[in-house]
Amino acid sequence: MSAATAAVAVEALSLTLGVFRLKKLSFALARGGILVILGPNGSGKSVTLETIAGFHRPDGGCVLFGGRDVTALPPERRRVGFVVQNFGLFPHLSVAQNVAIGRRAASAAMAHDARLPAHGDPQALLSYFGIAHLAERAPGGLSPGEKQRVALARAVASTPDLFLFDEPFSALDSGTRDQLRQELKSFLRALAIPAIFVTHDHDDALALADTMIMLRDGAVAQSGSAAEIFRKPANSFVARFVGVQNILPGQLIAQSDGVFTLAVGERTLRAAGPPNAVNPGASLLLAIRAEDVTLSRAGIASEPPGAVNRLQGRVVGSRTIGPLVAVQIDCGFALKAYLLAPQWQAMKLGPDAPVMAAVAPNAIHLMNE
Amino acid sequence: MTVDAVANRAGSIKSRWRTRGAPSRPGTLYLLCWFCGSVLLAFLVIPLVALATHQSAQNLGEVAGMADVRAAIALSLEGAFLSATLAALAGVPLAYGLARTRFPGKGMVAALIDLPLAVPHTVAGIALLMVFGRQGIFGEPLQTLVGLRFWGTLAGIVVAMLFVSAPYTVNAARIGFEAVDPRLEQIARTLGLGPWRTFLRITLPLAWHSIMTGVTLTYARSISEFGAVVILVYYPMTAPVMIYELFLRFGLEQAAGAAVLLLIVSLALFVLLRALAQRGTPAPGNR
After folding, report:
1. Does the first or last residue of chain B, that is N or C, have fewer Cβ atoms within 10 Å of its Cβ?
2. CATH domain B56-279 topology
3. How many CA within 13 A on the CB side of residue A364?
4. Do B191 and A101 lie within an 8 Å CB cutoff?
5. Are B206 and A140 in contact (CB < 8 Å)?
6. Sequence ranges of the domains in chain B
7. What angle do the packed helices B106-118 and B67-100 form, to 10 degrees?
């Protein structure tokens, strides 16, 4: 996808804004896709979004909407729909007035954009989003789900080329978040307007992303599909951020037929490994997701020997996390495993009990740094 | 009113009186707070009540019949109106600038705005005399160039009133603007509203209540100003100067009559302005 054909493209964007810096940031988004920008606080996610919306003039680089350079345009001429935390409805206007305010600003030609539901007519938009009965209500008393619909209707009324979401769910409880994510995704699919969604929440990213970029200190740490970034993080920073619990330093001993043999402490592990060859003796990091570690009582072999890495160890402790139990094991090095709570209880293992951990070679992801 | 409505109303009154975060039975702390508070409230209210009840209707009518008293009150209202208008015209932009921009020395500017509140008003009057007086920095050239005089004129009264009361408008408006989430302004921009329309449609309505509260305070402070006005402009007399003059020449009785008249007029205007401030706020219960 070239910058000219992409729905949205950011090219070598540089910006210094107080403590935030964007360092030659580049990415592109296909028409109708959802791009999730994931990153910790201070990584420059919001600043990136605000620069795309037109609130900051970049020091260098450009922003293209469908090949059109908008870098020099003020926000009101960019046609972006901006949705923020708590949805940012205007508290002094009714729902209908909130939706109508942008339409009045848009030109008559824009308001009859045939791509959009109801052609930008506020009343029809309210019906499209199922909020016609709320038209005269003040935004303050609405539920989060209703607010989201009003925010979307308001943005659509101004006929945007692009949606920008800046952590709209971050103040909501997890149940509501999940429901609103699903709803947002289906609306975005139906509208076929591309969207950039900024978050630091894994669940947001996994639920919404067609493609994803991971931001670190104003630069792209990794880009790809959500599955790629979660299963095959590029480095230990990304791995930690996407919730890889076990990151172990190891040394490559040998490789043959795409199987890598590594020394981790006193132990030897086999990994399916990266496709690119690495010299023996090289230091690598092993990323193992805690849910990929299976446990059994010592002495019971549930898998045929040789198919998996089997590690004899001892239970250090356990901790309940929602429906899961995080079990800390010492098998020469510290290893964490996630089990469903009933499975763990059935194993009847207390602290210091011997335990057998198993990790499939293809569940071990190798990283250079 | 139905029985249910009455019950609801009783319930809402009851819930209004419930102390926040405290058990329904008031503790010793709250009783003590209210005891001390009552002393202060009484101290604030009793003198005004005493003043108002001391007057016979006949005496009041007599004072109201005096043309110079009526003229003085009218002059006070006019001066305060102009002072509040000027404070709003210049102070609201200043407040928005302070709320939305960051620059070195911003703390200094904020302190400068508060300065007139700390200066004794007679001192302010003397300082203003140096600038707007006959030989003042502005007073002299403005008189010779455009014939604008600040001594013995309404213009002088307004200048004195504005100096001591403008900080209320600037500070209240600034707090009001700071409370408007910049994100709302950003959203308005993305919806296609330019900076001016965003300010007029979003920012100003949301800050309206605070601005009007500030303007009301400026207005009230302007009406009550004595010290700065009396030094810069003794004649024509505003109501406070007139009351002082009556007190010196005829004693308490005459002065008190004019004082009650001024009290009635300014309270009425205060209530009116507060109602106006409320009207501009978002519909109830949606913040």
Report:
1. N
2. MetI-like fold (1.10.3720)
3. 27
4. yes
5. no
6. 56-279
7. 160
A interface mutation test: which of B187, B193, B208 has the most A CBs within 10 A?
Answer: B187
B205 CA to chain A: closest CA distance, Å? 7
Name the residue among B174, B61, B68 with its Cα closest to residue B113.
Answer: B174
Domains contained in chain A, CATH given: 8-237 (3.40.50.300), 247-367 (2.40.50.100)
How many of the other CB atoms lie within 10 Å of CB of B45? 10
Q: What is the pLDDT of residues A281-325, one digit of tens each?
A: 888 899 999 999 999 887 665 555 567 888 999 999 999 988 899
B contacts of A105 (beta carbons < 8 Å)? 191-193, 197
The percent of residues above 70 in pLDDT, for chain A, comes to 91
Alpha-carbon gap: B181 to the closest alpha carbon of chain A (Å)? 9
- Alpha-carbon span B156 to A318, nearest angstrom: 80
Residue-wise pLDDT tens digits, A240-285: 999 899 999 998 888 877 788 889 988 889 888 666 667 778 888 9
Average confidence (pLDDT) over A37-60: 92
Look at residue A113 and tell me whether its pLDDT is greater than 80.
no
Q: For the residues B253-257, what does the mean pLDDT come to?
A: 87
Starting at the edge strand found earlier in the chain, the sheet holding A162-166 runs A80-84, A162-166, A195-199, A34-38, A211-216, A219-224
Best residue of A46, A90, A165 to probe chain B, by most B CBs closer than 10 Å: A90
Residue B279 touches chain A, beta carbons under 8 Å: no
Instruction: Kindly determine whether residue B186 and residue A140, on different chains, have CB atoms separated by under 8 Å.
Output: no
Q: Who has greater pLDDT, B4 or B229?
A: B229
Checking if the pLDDT of B5 tops 80, the result is no
Please indicate whether, in this complex, the C-beta atoms of A92 and B282 are within 8 angstroms of each other.
yes
My answer on whether omega of the bond before B236 falls inside 30° of 0, hence cis, is: yes
Facing residue for B189 by CB, picked from A76, A94, A155: A76
pLDDT (tens digit per residue) in B35-65: 999 999 999 999 989 888 888 888 888 888 8
A26: exposed, middle or buried (C-beta count within 10 Å: 0-12, 13-18, 19+)?
A: middle
A102 and B202: CB-CB below 8 Å? no
Residues of A in contact with B180 (CB under 8 A): none
Q: What is the count of residue pairs from A and B with beta carbons less than 8 Å apart? A: 82
pLDDT tens-digit map of A4-35:
678 889 999 999 988 888 989 899 888 878 99
- Strand A283-288 with A246-256, pairing: antiparallel
- Residue-level pLDDT at A117: 56
Partners of A80 on chain B (C-beta within 8 Å) are 190
